[in-house]
Write a structure and sequence with these properties.
Fumarate Reductase Iron-sulfur Protein, Chain B, domain 2, four-stranded parallel β-sheet, globular, Rossmann fold, 46% helix, binds iron/sulfur cluster, single chain, 356 residues, alpha/beta, 3 domains
Length: 356
């Protein structure tokens, strides 16, 4: 068995956690909250990783258990010692993939449940759906590059059309990128360098400011690819009055993990909603940094769809009665719609419906 070694920084963090035995992160974990299984606690994940690093278990044998994670970052936020469990988890995944995949691909795929087809879609076609040609056009003189991301481009074209109509009405010229942000590959052990090379080889928007409706794309483009990016609600804020929005409706706004906990974007989407006359806005019971996860992130949905649905249901239990859930993330919208009977809207859906 090959002995794996984390970076010095992660080794230090892992040892600190193992010495404290505090387990504060457990009660906040989106997966533990619904399963109440000890092996789902973030700390248990770190213990398993430690066992593998010390050669007491085969790293491949623990990968499935480690995949019971939505990347919600609640464990990182709640740790009094500032331990970044997610960083350690992804570093470990990368070590295992690099050491084991080439050695015996078949065994690696079988034991870890590595989704070979999905990965080849990302690598060869540039999107998770394996679509050959995805809509997109880059114009030299546009004001911004709209980065819809794979979900909108392939599964929610209506939202793309609404966005285009809003931008047209505001006289904002835009290009449309058909690139993927590739952030999902982190969950399958790809390194930052590999992800960055894939993105740079496909993205054609240059250095122009990017605007997105997806929290995952926002986080990845900002923090992994170092791009100048804003969320669509930040773009609309100072122009929204021109749209003269009005809608008699009741909504509950939810903070997505990657807009909120990852990037502290709380105000923009709320202010855009507040600009809609007659709209009554409620917050979910636990909001902002304590906001519940939609259950669609990380690897949970891919490997444990039934648990993912329970995480979604836990979020829906917190919405105000008689309201429609509204999110600033196209992926959260897609996931909740898939995981439940709820009809979720993006803030942009609502802006479009409120235009007069
Ligand atoms: S990650 Fe932090 S909160 Fe969780 S058990 Fe370790 S030290 Fe405690
Ligand atoms: S990122 Fe979320 S789901 Fe994953 S271990 Fe941490 S708290 Fe649990």
């Amino acid at each position: 068995m090959i002995i794996l070694k984390l970076s010095d920084e992660s080794t230090k963090a892992l040892n600190l956690c193992l010495n404290t035995r505090c387990n504060f992160c457990r009660e906040t974990c989106s997966v533990y909250e619904v399963s109440k299984m000890e092996f789902d606690s973030p700390r248990a994940k770190l213990e398993l990783i430690n066992e593998a690093l010390n050669g007491r278990v085969d790293p491949k044998d623990i990968m499935i258990t480690l995949n019971r994670c939505t990347s919600c970052k609640k464990c990182v936020e709640s740790c009094p010692y500032g331990i970044d469990t997610l960083k350690i988890l992804n570093e470990f995944r990368n070590l295992v993939r690099e050491s084991e995949l080439k050695k015996n691909e078949h065994e690696y795929v079988v034991k870890t449940g590595y989704p070979r087809k999905l990965i080849s879609n990302f690598v060869e076609k540039g999107n998770p759906f394996g679509v050959e040609k995805v809509e997109g056009h880059i114009k030299k003189n546009s004001d911004i590059v709209l980065f819809p991301g794979c979900i909108i481009l392939n599964e929610d074209k209506e939202l793309l059309n609404k966005t285009k109509k809003i931008l047209d009405k505001l006289n904002i010229s835009y290009s449309i990128s058909n690139s993927c942000c590739y952030s999902a590959l982190k969950n399958f052990g790809f390194s930052k360098k590999e992800i960055s090379e894939m993105f740079e080889s496909r993205y054609k928007g240059g250095d122009k400011r990017i605007v997105t409706l997806c929290a995952g794309c926002y986080n990845s483009l900002k923090n992994d690819h170092g791009r100048d990016i804003i969320h669509i609600t930040e773009l609309l804020l100072d122009k929204i009055k021109k749209l003269n929005l009005e809608k008699d409706d009741l909504v509950t706004y939810i903070d997505s993990c990657k807009l909120g906990r990852y990037n502290q974007i709380y105000d923009g989407p709320r202010k855009v909603l507040e600009s809609i006359k007659n709209l009554k806005i409620f917050d979910i019971e636990n909001n902002m940094e304590d906001a519940p996860c939609c259950g669609g992130g990380g690897t949970l949905k891919q490997y444990f769809p039934a648990v993912s649905r329970k995480v979604t249901q836990k979020l829906l239990n917190q919405k105000a009665k008689g309201t429609t859930i509204v999110t600033g993330c196209s992926y959260c919208k897609h996931n909740i719609n898939q995981n439940s009977d709820e009809k979720v809207k993006h803030v942009i859906d609502l802006v479009f419906e409120s235009m007069r």
